# Entry
Amino acid sequence: MLLKTKPADVFVDRHNGPDDAGVAEMLRVVGVESLDQLIDETVPAAIRLKKPLNLPKALTERAFLAKFKGIAEKNQLFKNYIGLGYHPTQLPAVIQRNILENPGWYTAYTPYQAEIAQGRLEALINYQTMVMELTGLDIANASLLDEGTAAAETLHMFHSLSKKKNATRYFVSEQVLPQTIDVLRTRATPLGIELVIGDHRTADLTDESLFGAILQYPAADGAVYDYTDFITKAHEHSLFVTVAADLLSLTLLTPPGEMGADAVVGNSQRFGVPMGYGGPHAGFLATRDQFKRVIPGRIIGQSIDAAGNKAFRMALQTREQHIRREKATSNICTAQVLLSVLAGMYAVYHGPQRIRQFASNIHAQAQTLAGALGELGLNQRNEFYFDTLDIKLESEELQSAVKKEAEAARINFRYFSEHGTPRVGISLNQNTEIEDVQDIVAVFAKVLGKNAPQVALPAEVDVNWDDVLVRKSEYLTHPIFNSHHSEHEMLRYMKQLENKDLSLAHSMIALGSCTMKLNATAEMIPVTWPEIGNLHPFAPREQAQGYAEIFADLEKWLCEVTGFDAVSLQPNSGAQGEYAGLLAIKGYHDSRGDQHRNVALIPASAHGTNPASAVMAGMQVVVVKSTEDGNIDVADLEAKAAQYADKLSCLMVTYPSTHGVYEETIIDICQTIHNHGGRVYMDGANMNAQVGLTSPAIIGADVCHLNLHKTFCIPHGGGGPGVGPIGVVADLAPFLPGHVLIDADGRTASAVSSAPWGSASILPISYAYINMMGGEGLTEATRIAILNANYIKAKLEEHYPVLYTGANGRCAHEMILDCRQFKKAGIEVEDIAKRLMDYGFHAPTVSFPVAGTLMVEPTESESKEELDRFIEAMIAIRMEVAEVEEGRADAKDNLLKHAPHTAATVLVHDWTRPYSREQAVYPTEYARAYKFWPSVSRIDSAYGDRNLICSCTSIDEYVDAEEQLVQADKGPSY
# Structure
């Protein structure tokens, strides 16, 4: 007997769902002889790659993890006291294991289908409540991307609200975090807003050109100021005031809301989320009730379901950029759900007393350190402080000596100058022990040539702040923050919430444009390694050589995939990537003296963030029509490109199209734009249908963003984190985002995100994916994604019309199922979406890009067996619709209108509905064997908007108290 040898553990076989037999059967159903034939019939020959991807050879999981361990160990773990919004912290192990490392949490999708997302939604209500109560304000959103972008969002919000018609200036305290000022500058410039940076104590608030101001609390140097008088004077002159605050300090300090702040922003990172070299972390934004209609991001609200039970949902202006498009006030499309869940659970687990104790310990250690440094003759500048000392030094030579000695002791401080005077900033944190304080003292003592005084943590310290700065109001009083302090209780609480949510751990989530594919365990493992999680983003770059290698490789590989010359990893969401890409185009035009080029052509079918991003970048949106078959109307595009030739900045285009088609005319479309002096931005939402087969560069694009949380396997995390790096051609490379604190490879543009490399700690996931797939594996994944989509199309097109196809009747990696004809029988697409829950599936994308349709994307990771279960469910639902159409089922009292069915719905003594309980909850044998039970019935969205409750307060306490009901004007639905 002869034994053949070949690799037995190939990762691509783990990632791609169908086996050889499944592929063969699907090809037969699709009607082709081979996968090559299907690809030839689907992807236009003119845009096909001429050679294979030049990427490293694929590694096994074991080989990759061994290799990556060596890379990670090149990062040096110093004690970090740099501060500036990032602090070492401790994520409780019970939360790390059961949320951060749990696919039941990290593979779920954005909670648009609220009935099967009640666990995440409750966790986000906890987060909102935590933020509202700590900041002292009325309403908070369910997270933003980071502190800098949250601050920028309030700048936009208050600029749009200002009644001072000619006010285009915004006061920024010089003590706002430098990276936040950098992001503010980026966001202000395209809109013609001027930042006035100065000392808040001497600012002229009578200036009629000012519309608002932002302050830091505590300040960047650690000083704590009472801003009450400043805010009062600002309001007297019709200025809005934002305060960027440290959440942990607000357990001891008077909250900005009580000082009169209109908004409070910040970063919840130090509530248990690792620094991760800059992200991802959940930014927050809290504001007053009067601004609830304009606050950016997502708000989670409480409503009722069909049975009158309490239920959570996304409320108010959710997804408003999809509705309002170029009139949107924000382009936010993702949040940091997984990170806000972690921060909220940190508050649930520790409760108000323990969190306050963390803060008390930190402040006591800061006082102890200040006293010891004073004994050494050093000048600590801050009269009032929480955790950060500002040490004035006599010379730059002394500052350099401190830095050298500190780094020899593996300690990082912040080194800066103010008005020519060298300073050292020292920010203590939750992980600081009294022994660490002694080590810090020893560094200074050695440099000064003195004996280090011995320190000890006192049993109590006297807080010497002015009384007005001392917090007196309570916070986190709800039982949820006071009931789960033992690990056993916490474990059970998190599990109860997890059980309410459907994720990829249960079944496929066939969301078109969202690419819900396998997030392999081996890809996730390094994320929680200390070498990845415990680096400060502003640590010296020589301490992060492991990260440097990851960034360099990933940029090189993404250039290979896209065909571009340079990549920026900084944008921390797809929408941020769009914005950064448009700014690169704007920077290019401006550098050539073409500041007048400000027209962005955008197809009518484009994702809603496209026009919103264009407006934020200071552009004028001109919509290009679509033809009846869903393609870009080339004649209309050519006419408008010619009409606006002198002002044309760019075209924003998605490829394959948002309709799931490889448009044959794409090269000509891009060339038309170039002929008129414009550049082409390609939305990378559908890169899962390009990798290895074609590329943005081949079709003629100049820049594109890549959703690493889609094509490159970073989990969606229940609605975030996302990562949206951009690739550009060579002449746009100089205009990629830089950073004020870190020399990002010589890039001088201002930042789009707070951290130099955005969400750095989850980049290893995509790094792992590319390493373990290799060029051949990535290409095969794209081929299988196209096969899976065309298999579903072939099986369902006799039941549901498929709206758009390519020249040979093929779809790309997704398709649109038309459900509009069912409206004649009173059945809406929403009814089908809710009924799918009874079958154990999350709905495909509902009513985008065409109202009344479902956009289906199976991805390459789903097996033929799982595809068949989904197909079976969709056909069965079509038969249920037919019963209504034919009058065999009542138009209102039927399976679809009452879906989803909960256990409580069917476990009633008197069942009066015209269909059986079995039909309701066990429509297939698979559903009977592996039933996923929605925890609530269909939710009344309109009720939730009319009666907005977005914190941890029982609806029973409000339902009869009309004075507590917040009447909201009619807004967009989603």
